[in-house]
Amino acid sequence: MKNSLTWKNIVGYGLGDVANNFAFAMGAMFLLNYYTDTAGIHAAVAGTMLLVVRIFDAVADVVVGRVVDSTRSRWGKFRPFILFGAVPLMIFSILVFSVPSFLSDGQKIFYIYLTYMGLGVCYSLVNIPYGSLSTAMTQNPEERARLGAARTIMASFTYTLLAFVISPAIGGGHGESQSTYTLYTAILAVVGVGLYWMCFASTQENITRTVEQPSLRISLRTLKSNRPLIILCLVAIATLTGTFSLSAAGLYYVRYILNDMSYFSVLIFIQTFLGAVLAAPLVPRLVRRIGKKSTFLLGSGIAACSYLTLFLFLSASPYAAFALFACASFGASLCMTVMWALEADTVEYGEYRTGVRIEGLTYSLFSFTRKCGQALGGSLPAFILVSFGYVSNQPQTAEAVMGIKLSVAVIPALFMLLAFIGMVFYPLTEKLYQQILIEIEQRKKNSQEFLETLEENQVYRRRTE
Questions:
Q1: How far apart are CA 282 and CA 149, in angstroms?
Q2: I want to staple 58 with a disulfide (CB 3.0 to 4.6 A). Which of 120, 327, 340, 368 is the partner?
Q3: CA–CA separation, 355 and 457 (whole Å)
Q4: φ/ψ (deg, to 5) at 104
Q5: Using CA atoms, how far apart are residues 348 and 327, in angstroms rounded to an integer?
């Protein structure tokens, strides 16, 4: 299959995920700890809010997907959302980390619900078109894998950057931490808008729908019949639950078990950047050799085994723990990278089964389940910490330490194992995908020939009447 993307397109697309993670990674790494230890919000309240609002965002994704699928503009279907949605998204990313200290407890709860809900809606309006854009850039499996690798590497770079810059700066008191959060989120917002606009300028939509926007009933029926998409969504829930449990609990691990905040930068570097740098470039090669499904199975198997072994070394040996973090990160990065290419393939499968191509709604369903996993993984540590007796900014009991260990090791191991099991049943192989592409192209050709024949017959009929 002919290549159509340049490195400018691939890198430019990846820059969009740097901007995404200026809002998203900040929340994944710091928000729960910011709410409990800086804003003074009870862990159970913060955990409940993270769960409720994320589920609300997931439902809103379906509506956004429908809006995206019905969009027509001179810039395409997806790129306008990146262009015009960047500024509102980044404004809300600042507001989320700027809870006013003078508010009462009830007012703070209202504030965090309002601002986090606004962030979620704005993120959906940018991220769903951004994720769907890859399906319109190319149908080449290796190129889609490169786009996924670009996303993973750029996102991992962003996680590492934020960890090394922000975590050393938030070790002081409440006021110092709050001013640091506000300052850095403002800087990231300005840079993030610029990166979104660079992504807009360096990408184009090469694959277009040949039929008009289908009705909602037909669109939902298309989703329902897309078995690979449904299985992939279930796998995504498990994968994201595991990885986000670790992300949310990592700061507690270095602060209360290792008693050294400087380790957090090392942990994030190992967990994200190191794993992604090793794993993401391998994904296109693995896809070419063993296929996307087998690549995911390999990654989830490595991650599940590494996380389970990690539980034994969290207190005994930080160096052994970090080595196991690296192994788990490598496996999880394989999964997260190839998952984007898997999602893009399900668009063609849905078109093959029903004749309807719905990139936005397909990605929104995928995003819906990812957010459910993110909500579950991001809130589980809060509920576990509360149930094990966690008290913010205090030395922790043995029971609370056990809760932290469960959140960073056992929960990720369990859900990565579930992801592995789910992917075993994924039916869309590389051979079947190639057959689907050939069938779709043949249908388009037959449809075009039919329209041309019909037009010729109409012309002939007018001439003979």
A1: 9
A2: 368
A3: 26
A4: -75, 170
A5: 33
Residues 6+ apart with CB under 8 A from 343: 131, 229, 232, 362, 363, 366
Tokens matching residue 192:
């993030």
Q: Could you tell me which residues come within 8 angstroms of residue 421 by beta carbon, excluding any fewer than 6 positions away?
A: none
Total Cβ atoms within 10 A of residue 462: 8
pLDDT tens digits along 195-204: 999 999 999 8
Which value, to the nearest 10 degrees, does the dihedral of the CA atoms of residues 118, 122, 127, 133 take?
A: 160
Paired tokens of 3: 């290549």
Q: What is the model's pLDDT at position 456?
A: 55
Average pLDDT of the chain is 83
Alpha carbon distance 29, 420 (integer Å): 25
| Range list of H helices, 388-429 | 398-405, 411-424
Total residue length of the chain: 465
Q: How distant, in Å, are the alpha carbons of 4, 155, 319 from that of 97?
A: 41, 20, 32
Tell me phi and psi for residue 179, to 5 degrees. Answer: -65, -35
Q: Is 312 exposed, middle or buried (0-12, 13-18, 19+ CB in 10 A)?
A: middle
Phi-psi region of 187 (alpha: psi -120 to 50; beta: other; left: phi over 0): alpha
Query: Hey, what are 307's tokens?
Result: 């996380």
Q: How far apart are CA 82 and CA 320, in angstroms?
A: 42
Q: How far apart are CA 320 and CA 328, in angstroms?
A: 12
pTM of the full predicted structure? 0.68
75's tokens: 């810039």
The owner of tokens 């796998």 is 235
CB contact at 8 A, 287 and 145: yes
Furthest C-alpha separation in the chain: 94
Give how far Cα 391 sits from Cα of 109, 168, 179, 262, 397, Å.
19, 22, 23, 21, 9
Q: pLDDT tens for residues 310-335? A: 998 888 778 888 899 989 989 998 99
Residue type, 355: G
First-to-final CA distance of the chain: 47
Q: Residue 259: CB partners within 8 Å, gap ≥ 6?
A: none
CA nearest neighbour of 150 among 296, 274, 345, 18: 18
417, amino acid identity: L
Listed in sequence order, the residues at least 6 apart from 355 whose beta carbon sits closer than 8 Å to its beta carbon are: 211, 443
Buried b (16+ CB within 10 A) or exposed e, 131-155: bbbbbbbbbbbbbbbbbbbbbbbbb
Contact yes or no for 111/45 (Cβ under 8 A) = no
CA distance 269 to 142: 27
